[in-house]
């Protein structure tokens, strides 16, 4: 992540490995960081939209806010990890 942490950043400066997310462009993909101060999930979500993903979700508050809200978490391997 080399670009500035702001809306309108120059995404060409960043490198994200999009091969690690679901390849079905109609699947729901969710991006979240470890808090609202992080910009990587925001930038990755924008990149996914530009790559043609149709159901991109960005959880701004990250995992801390998700946990505080009492929302479910699961530490089981993702579908992508299970394919390997």
The string of secondary-structure elements, in order, is EHEHH
**Topology, number of strands:** 2
Q: Approximately what portion of the residues adopt beta-strand conformation?
A: 5-15%
- Largest sheet, order of strands side by side? 1-2
Report the uncertain regions.
none
Q: Overall 3D geometry?
A: globular
Q: Which range best describes the helical content: under 10%, 10-25%, 25-40%, 40-55%, 55-70% or over 70%?
A: 25-40%
Structural class: alpha+beta
Total helix count? 3
Distance between the termini: 26 Å
Characterize the main sheet. 2 strands, parallel
Radius of gyration: 13 Å
Mean pLDDT: 78
Verbal overview:
By secondary structure, this protein is an alpha+beta fold. It is built from 3 helices and 2 strands. The protein has a two-stranded parallel ribbon. Helix 1 (40-50) links the parallel strand 1 and strand 2. The mean pLDDT is 78.
